[in-house]
TrEMBL record:
GO terms under cellular component: membrane
GO biological process: acylglycerol catabolic process
Pfam family for this entry, one: Abhydrolase_1
Matches recorded under InterPro entries: AB_hydrolase_1, AB_hydrolase_fold, AB_hydrolase_sf
Amino acid composition bias (Low complexity), ranges on this chain: 320-331
The entry's keywords: Hydrolase
AB hydrolase-1 domain span: 55-300
Gene Ontology MF terms: monoacylglycerol lipase activity
Transmembrane listed as a keyword: no
Lineage of the species this protein comes from: Bacteria, Bacillati, Actinomycetota, Actinomycetes, Kitasatosporales
SUPFAM superfamilies in alphabetical order: alpha/beta-Hydrolases
Name of the protein: Hydrolase
UniProt keyword Hydrolase, yes or no: yes
């Protein structure tokens, strides 16, 4: 694995028409080259040495910037990094063009294996939630805890407001949409995305909206933007149809790590009704429901999510201590997972 600091201006061969990648105060952005992929990794210095590592994975159309509001609130309890999935943020497309949930999960695993930071506190939102669920199921050695914000797990009755996103998976639709929306400004696109993803778009500050517009303009300058979106959307749809041991709900049941679930009552992409099913599927889970939040609670209510994670850490720490004691007395292995 090789790692280099990313400049504020992205590589000219990929982003000749794009603006600079935004790096918030206190953040560092570096490029990590691995076999078959190059990943941009956003990080913050921890408050002190020796804190357990955390890795954050964004959703469809997002980037590591989606976690910039939450990470500073956890600097004193975790050593934080957020990854740009291949083809998103500042990460170029994967060499093999694989944007499936499994392909993205493989990229996360490859990074964790190469950097040697595991096991980590693993966070995922939307598509990222499906990805890290798969990571936790197949590589439990890499995961301390799992935090899922509106994870994109299969739904039988998909919300009507989520249908347009799913239609991106249909071959040819992305190119048709591109032609249809050619005259749309970056501001119009951002307002549409925020109306879909936020419970109350009015919570976005003028500065936050301006940064989002700048990022949208940058992404629209990427030659692979719509291809990455369409193929990743297709990956979600395909993952929804997989049954047996590779199905996402079956893999959720296999997750051993303590899991914090966060669902928004105004989510237009992932059904709020799925919260209870997820709480039953993950064997050691805690559920936080935010009635006024939409699809990106960590961006809308970062303080609330941070507080819930801190309490979750304290709770899992007490459980681990209790398990050690009980295991010694009852002959149960100290790492045996119990239902929650």
């Amino acid at each position: 694995m090789s790692s280099t600091e990313l400049p504020f201006v992205p590589p000219a061969d990929l982003l000749s028409k794009a603006a600079a990648v935004r790096v918030a105060e206190g953040e560092r952005l570096r490029s990590v080259r691995l076999p078959g992929i190059t990943l941009a990794v956003r990080s913050r210095p921890p408050a002190r040495e020796g804190l357990p590592p955390a890795l954050y994975v964004h959703g469809l159309g997002g980037s590591s910037q989606n976690w910039s509001a939450l990470m500073p609130l956890l600097d004193d309890v975790t050593d934080n990094e957020a990854v740009d999935l291949p083809g998103f943020g500042d990460s170029p497309p994967p060499d093999d063009g694989n944007y499936s949930v499994t392909g993205h999960a493989r990229a996360v695993i490859r990074y964790l294996d190469a950097c040697g930071r595991g096991p980590v506190h693993l966070f995922g939102n939307s598509l990222g939630g499906a990805i890290v669920t798969r990571v936790a199921a197949v590589r439990p050695d890499l995961v301390r805890t799992l935090t899922l914000v509106s994870p994109a797990l299969p739904e039988i009755r998909v919300q009507r407001t989520a249908v347009p996103t799913g239609l991106l998976a249909v071959p040819g639709v992305a190119s048709l949409f591109t032609r249809f929306t050619r005259e749309w400004t970056a501001e119009q696109r951002v307002r549409g995305v925020m109306a879909l993803c936020y419970g109350d778009p009015g919570r976005v500050s003028p500065e936050g909206f301006r940064h989002a517009v700048e990022e949208m303009e940058r992404r629209l300058g990427l030659p692979y933007f719509w291809d990455a979106m369409a193929r990743s959307a297709r990956g979600i749809v395909n993952a929804y149809t997989v049954g047996g041991q590779h199905g996402l709900w079956r893999q959720a049941e296999r997750v051993l790590a303590p899991t914090l679930l966060v669902y928004g009552g105004r989510d237009r992409l992932v059904g709020y009704r799925m919260a209870q099913r997820a709480a039953r599927a993950f064997r050691d889970s805690r559920l936080l429901t935010l009635p006024d939040a939409g699809h990106v609670a960590m961006m809308e209510y970062p303080e609330t999510v941070a507080t819930a994670f801190r309490e979750f850490l304290a709770d899992t720490g007490k459980s681990a201590a209790g398990t050690d004691t009980e295991g010694a007395a009852d002959g149960v292995p100290a790492n045996e997972s119990t239902g929650g």
